[in-house]
Amino acid sequence: AASDKNWDVVNFGGALSTTYFAQVNGFGEDVQSNDWLISPAINLVYYSNEKVIFYTQWRYGSTDTELKLLYSTDYAGGDPTLATWIELPFVKSLTQDIWTFSGNISLDEISAPNFHLAFQYLSSSTPRRWGVDQIIVLGDENPSVPVSDWAIGVGALLMLAFTFFMIKKRF
User: Rounded to two decimals, what is the model's pTM?
Assistant: First the structure.
């Protein structure tokens, strides 16, 4: 069940000197959080060597297992607990209030033409505040694709920077 503490967009200093970023904080929640930040559908059929990169930071709390990056090939909208989600590990900061690069997280294992990425926040008894920023999906163009079929491309590199939409319902 989602708590009364949801993902939100805040404006007090994101990664790489940006202003806005997504944040979730379970402090003072009514029930333990199970809150989701889910991307729109992503189609990388015309690309190879796909990866996602982003930055995270945290403050307070005593565990780093609350925030997970997941993907689903069968999420159809609505309740995310009805879909199958697979975790993608990423680098997390050992120090609070430090924006930390996730590392290059390969998406090569995803064979479905459409999928969703999500950040899931499962709070603990001493919840952390987590921030996520600069979420970018990258990939190399498939040279055998005719120009008329190109999706979003910049030269020979896909740079799909997107804004996650926020699920604020209780599931």
Answer: 0.82
Angle at 115 between CA 63 and CA 65, to 5 degrees: 5
**Beta-bridge partner residues of 166:** 37
Any residues with CB less than 8 A from the CB of 148 and at least 6 apart, and which? none
- Which amino acid does the sequence have at 99? W
What are the structure tokens assigned to 143, written together? Answer: 């040279």
Query: Tens digits of per-residue pLDDT, 23-78?
Result: 988 777 677 788 888 888 888 887 888 999 999 999 998 888 889 999 999 999 88
What stretches of 11-66 adopt beta strand conformation (E)? Answer: 21-25, 34-38, 47-59
Query: How far is it, in rounded angstroms, from Cα 50 to Cα 142?
Result: 11
pLDDT in tens, 81-99: 999 999 999 999 889 999 9
Instruction: Residue 114: name the closest of 43, 168, 47, 48 by CA.
Output: 43
